[in-house]
Design goal:
Blueprint: H1 7-16, H2 25-38, E1 48-49, E2 54-55, H3 62-65, H4 69-78, H5 92-106
Antiparallel strand pairs: 1-2
Length: 110
């Protein structure tokens, strides 16, 4: 009976699985490139995030903030504080890639 798993325990394991665990590696790579240098302006100019090698001091430290996907998407779409909107400079797929990357790299999805 050691191989039996109680249904309630199995449900807990499924619920606790990070949402970004199945993130598309190609999308994450695109998001990282956009974050580091390809977006205009590049996110790394203002934000700190260890995975990206970014040490910007204007915007929040994303490793500490650990923003969720909706928060990052909203900030990219609408702008926030000194951060400009990227609605006219990045496609929706590019914004989604940056958001997925930030959530994944900051550890917010874990």
């Amino acid at each position: 009976m050691a191989h039996c798993v109680r249904p309630s325990l199995l449900a807990l394991v499924v619920v606790a699985t990070p949402a970004m665990a199945d993130a598309d590696p190609a999308q994450l790579e695109e998001g990282k490139l956009l974050f580091q240098s390809e977006a205009a302006p590049a996110c790394a100019i203002c934000h700190t995030m260890q995975d990206a090698g970014a040490t910007g001091g204007i915007g929040p430290d994303l490793d500490e903030l650990k923003p969720d996907l909706d928060r990052v998407k909203k900030a990219l779409e609408e702008g926030m504080g000194a951060m400009p909107s990227f609605a006219d400079t990045l496609t929706e797929a590019q914004r989604d890639a940056v958001a997925a990357y930030v959530v994944h790299a900051s550890g917010a999805g874990q």
